[in-house]
Amino acid sequence: MKTDSVKNRQVQLAIVGGGAAGMFAASVAADLRLGAVLIERKARLGSKVLMTANGRCNFTKDISPDRFLADVGPCAKFVAKAIRECPPRRIADGFKSLHVPVRRMADGRLFPADGKATTIVHAFGDLLRDTETPIITNCPVTAVEQTHGGFAIVTKNFTLEAKNVLIATGGVSYPKLGSVGDGQKFAKSLGHSIVPYRPGLIGLETADPRIVRRAGRRYEDGRAKVCGPDGTVLFDYRGEVDCEQFGLSGAAVYNSQRFIEHAGLKDWEIEVWFDRERLRFRNLKPRPVKEAIVTIGGVALDDVNPETMESKIVPGLYFAGEVLDIDGPTGGYNLTLAFATARLAVASAAARWRITSRPSSAAKTR
Ligand SMILES: Cc1cc2nc3c(=O)[nH]c(=O)nc-3n(C[C@H](O)[C@H](O)[C@H](O)COP(=O)(O)OP(=O)(O)OC[C@H]3O[C@@H](n4cnc5c(N)ncnc54)[C@H](O)[C@@H]3O)c2cc1C
Fold first, then answer.
1. Residue pLDDT, tens place only, 322-346
2. Kind and range of the H or E run holding 60
3. What lines the ligand 1 site, CB under 6 Å?
4. Domains with residue ranges and CATH for the chain
5. Is the pTM of this model over 0.70?
6. Do 344 and 83 meet the contact criterion of CB atoms below 8 Å apart?
């Protein structure tokens, strides 16, 4: 789309960020016939989605909403409505309706059957092309400002007027894939609190030679336990343990690290089981947030209405995905959170639009 064609026109919904949440949001907006424009900082949509699960994209987990919410931990109450209205089964059915065959693993994780994340991103791309949804790529939004009629979405080359805005700019991990914390800055400039960033689902550092000499090896039938200083087992997860040059990674280690971070543990031990070894480590340092699978922290949930994903401070401003202080374990939970919060935000914006654009009773009688 030519950028000057949108200049000085007001759209119903500007979606800032074309990642998992933004692409899903634009698809829902097309379905609801809510005039939306999708604006993405990078040259293509979904750069991070393409990296998920080593390029295979574990897009959800085939479990009930109750089980999902029990597994997801601290943000469960906030995302409950979003997940109940857009549960894993609905996400899977949505992809099937876009002609994406789905493969289910024994533990319920769902992938595109061809094992390619590109299939997921192309499915969104095809849908947005077929619905003629305007997409502006290579275009970082530099500010989101309130105007009397809505919002000004400011970029280096033009300003777009929008009635509603959805900020879906992601967290701060893997910044090369586009998510650099811009949305949190916009939210802060509009009066929202930001919960400090911490790494979620990240490796733990150790120079122990029993790990380092196995660097590059993966152990699918591993296990990790987190224990308190008195030896009490606080968390126990069976899953992959990987040995790296820097230390430990893999799903069992990632989920343990996330548990430690959320529990705010200062003194803890992790016991890892793999390759007939059973090793215990104390207070290992996590790798930095820029390498994390997910960002813990972001726009404070107290400032956002969980029934609508709308800001409690600025009407017409919505949030979805990792820009919010929400995160889940490994296994398709984080993409599901991005999709479900995006759907709720757009459905709420559409409902708000219908209410505000309904003709007054005086107009109806004319
Ligand atoms: C290596 C890796 C593997 C992962 N594997 C999985 C997995 O298998 N399953 C799973 O469920 N989760 C996985 N995740 C997590 C998951 O990818 C994220 O939680 C999810 O992508 C978050 O979606 P989002 O839309 O909020 O953010 P993103 O997908 O990061 O999208 C944000 C978008 O906003 C754009 N943007 C940022 N700032 C601006 C701006 N100023 N103007 C315009 N656009 C902007 C960015 O360029 C980006 O495209 C993985 C993450 C990583 C890093």
1. 999 999 999 999 999 999 999 999 9
2. strand 60-61
3. 16-22, 39-42, 47-49, 51-53, 57-58, 140-141, 168-170, 173-174, 178-180, 182, 293-294, 321-323, 332-335, 338
4. 3-198+290-357 (3.50.50.60), 203-287 (no CATH)
5. yes
6. no
